[in-house]
Amino acid sequence: MEENKEIKNKLITTSSPHIFKNISVNKIMWTVAAALLPAIIASVYFFGWGSLWMIIVSVSSALATEAAIQKLSKKEVTINDGSAFVTGLLLALVLPPTVPLWISALGPIFAIAIAKHAFGGLGFNIFNPALAGRAFIIASWPALVSTYITPDGITSATPLSILKIQGQEALTQAFGATSSLYQSLFIGNIGGAIGETSALALLIGAGFLFYKKIIDWRIPSLYIGTVFFLSFIFGKDPAFSVLAGGLLIGAFFMATDPVTSPTTKNGRLIFGFGCGFLTVIIRVFSGLPEGVMYSILLMNALTPLIERYTIPKPFGTPKGENKILSFIKRMIKKNE
Predict the structure, then answer these.
(1) Rounded to an integer, what is the distance from CA 231 to the centroid of its chain?
(2) Neighbours of 285 (CB within 10 A)
(3) Which residues does 164 contact at the CB level (< 8 Å), separation at least 6?
(4) Residue 153 — very low, low, confident or very high, per pLDDT cuts 50/70/90?
(5) Residues ≥6 apart with Cβ < 8 Å to 264
(6) How does pLDDT run across 241-284, given as a tens digit for each residue?
(7) What is the 8-class DSSP label of residue 11?
(8) How far apart, in whole angstroms, are the C-alpha atoms of residue 209 and residue 30?
(9) DSSP label at residue 244
(10) Average per-residue pLDDT for the chain
């Protein structure tokens, strides 16, 4: 009797989850910040100390906005969780080196105040705050954020812009042989946003995230793989499409945001494919040379729907009709 009572006291009935991992928001965010260190170093190396000032201003603005909103809302100030820090850092890394510092300060204010806290704060935002901040900057001051320079200070369009506007011949004239172009794209000796030009730095950071198990393979693999495959289908250079522009920083550091991307395994596969598909469609058929930002933001908007139709059934649930097919049938009946 005494033994049964002791066993009963050890049994605790609670709602799920019953399996926990030794991971937290703080750990995720500061690990992502550490993984971006190679990109920060590359930005300073190629574009000078002005890049570091952009990063400092952007991060400081994000932290100050976060603290101010939480103070005004009479909530606990949680700037030490790293989420605002990473937002400011990522936003700075996807801006050209010629951007005035006041824009580097205004972008994070929109990202934190509107894209994050207007939706309820961390964990409730629909869109990636850093990309929403960049979209706000581009919509507000397009002329100021469309000027790029090469690492030696010469005003130059990005490789994607050269290809889109002037064609393959102009791209060849600018970089010479294809091998030289690939080398420049891989190392980072090209014009572009300060944190997206060096594929090498971004791959080192991505490797660190995989090693720490902060991200898994599904979203970045499907994203990059889809861009590679569809670029080939549309007659574009697949390797160039992957290395050029913001694809790598988007695939590894933005599309994998745990708040704005699906949590289910199948959902992540769909999300990655959707990002890759939209990126290629925008690059090939629109007037824009780049499509990473808009593709991720559009897929962010679809994340709740993707989650709804890819969430696994509870154990013991009888097999039923496909959820998507069932939804379509209900809509047809409703309209009849």
Answers:
(1) 21
(2) 10
(3) 283, 288, 289
(4) confident
(5) 306, 307, 310, 311, 312
(6) 999 999 999 999 999 999 999 999 999 999 999 999 999 999 99
(7) -
(8) 11
(9) S
(10) 88
Residues in the chain: 336
Q: Using omega within 30 degrees of 0 as the cis cutoff, is the peptide bond preceding 151 cis?
A: no
Rounded to two decimals, the pTM is: 0.86
Compute the chain's Rg from CA coordinates: 22
* Better-scored residue on pLDDT, 2 or 44: 44
Q: State how far the Cα of 325 lies from the Cα of 32, in Å rounded to an integer.
A: 38
* Residue 136 tokens, joined: 């706000």
Q: Is the pLDDT of residue 4 over 60?
A: no
Neighbours of 262 (CB within 10 A): 25
- DSSP 8-state code for residue 279: H
Write down all domains in the chain, each with its CATH number in brackets.
Answer: 25-309 (1.10.3430)
Q: What is the DSSP letter of 287?
A: S
Specify the amino acid at residue 136.
F
229 vs 8, 69, 160, 295, 322, CA distance in Å?
58, 44, 18, 17, 29
Q: pLDDT for 222-231, tens place per residue?
A: 999 999 999 9
Instruction: Give the residue-averaged pLDDT of 190-213.
Output: 95
Cα separation, 322 vs 319, in Å, equals 9
For 123, 141, 143, 148, 159, the CA distances from 98, given in Å and listed in that order, are 33, 13, 11, 7, 17
